[in-house]
Amino acid sequence: MTQATLTVTDPVMLEFAELVGVDDPVAVAGARTRWDVGGPLTEGSRVIEAPSGVVDYIPEEMVVTVRAGTPVAELAAVLAERGQRCALSERGGTVGGAIAVGQNDLNVMGKGRLRNSVLQVRYVSAEGRVVTGGGPTVKNVTGFDLPRLMTGALGTLGLLGEIILRTNPIPAHSRWLGSDGADPFAVLDSVLQPSVVLWNGDKTWVLLEGHPADVDSEAEAMAKVADFTEVAGPPELPPYRWSLPPADLRQLTGTYVASIGVGTVFADGPQPTPKPDPVAQTVAQRIKHQFDPTGRLNPGRNPGA
Ligand SMILES: Cc1cc2nc3c(=O)[nH]c(=O)nc-3n(C[C@H](O)[C@H](O)[C@H](O)COP(=O)(O)OP(=O)(O)OC[C@H]3O[C@@H](n4cnc5c(N)ncnc54)[C@H](O)[C@@H]3O)c2cc1C
């Protein structure tokens, strides 16, 4: 395994490992804002909590070490004191829950993808061992890339105790602009780096973030494509989150808000389940078996569901 260290002396992680134990079915609960994602937890499973708190923050190097049970809002407040933020969305969850679920924030084009911002994970394995994967300065990775593997795995491969995240500066200026009838794909092409482009088939919303002069010049470039006016923020998003290739976005019908350039669609109903890819299923099963041979970690959840 990549960068795994076998001798961890941090008493907090060792205590968490003891809590996880070695043999019974067990899951970590965060703030339960996405508790049923991936299916219901198998009845009778023991539910525990991950340790909490910001361990170390080096604003100059733009990295923060944080325990998985820390509320995202608490981490965001610590980072904001130094004019920074991270890729996690502040929606009432914990850092570990957000990484286990693995969803990007709405302004992913500005903040960066969650999976790329997880530099190191420290988790408890199915055998009850503390494992460290990745690192703040890792360049040459061989074997499994554990931070990327754990992001979105719903705690089925390891129970997260501590994470090192990349941070980035809070933009000095931001503007939400809206247009009736603008072609969102033409808008995306006209702007160097919008943070969000949303489209409901009729109206387009754009978030521009950055230095005030850059934001204003991006707004001028967009004005050549369509008429835009200042708006308060994004529209209300339908509750279900779909993932679609960009080419399919033009074929959408019904009530939806599509995030252009990202491939996420917020819709009124669940995404029709695609036909399972047998090769991907076999790979996923083998990885699961390697990490958790007895199926004791977060049983019942399926990250692919
Ligand atoms: C309406 C709404 C919209 C949201 N939209 C977004 C969005 O667009 N983008 C976004 O990033 N977030 C979004 N969130 C926030 C999201 O719910 C949380 O940030 C996070 O995904 C879940 O955190 P939680 O602590 O509530 O996890 P929980 O709901 O408690 O747990 C979710 C899953 O993660 C597992 N888990 C939790 N902690 C750990 C751990 N330490 N180790 C291993 N597994 C663990 C649980 O067992 C469970 O399977 C939204 C929330 C709401 C309510």
Describe this structure in words.
- The chain has 305 residues and is an alpha+beta fold.
- It folds into 2 domains: 11-170, 2-Layer Sandwich (Uridine Diphospho-n-acetylenolpyruvylglucosamine Reductase, domain 3); 173-267.
- It has 9 helices and 15 strands.
- It has helices spanning 11-20, 72-80, 95-101, 108-111, 114-117, 146-150, 184-190, 212-223, 278-291; strands at 26-28, 46-48, 54-58, 63-67, 84-86, 118-124, 130-134, 159-169, 173-180, 196-199, 203-210, 229-230, 240-243, 256-259, 264-267.
- The two termini are 26 Å apart.
- The model has no long low-confidence stretch (mean pLDDT 92).
Write a short abstract of this structure:
The protein has 305 residues and is an alpha+beta fold. The chain has nine helices and 15 strands. Strands 12-9-11-10-14-15-13 form a seven-stranded antiparallel β-sheet. Strands 3, 4, 5, 6, 7 and 8 form a six-stranded antiparallel β-sheet that branches.
Features:
about 300 residues, Uridine Diphospho-n-acetylenolpyruvylglucosamine Reductase, domain 3, six-stranded antiparallel sheet, 15 strands, globular, binds flavin-adenine dinucleotide
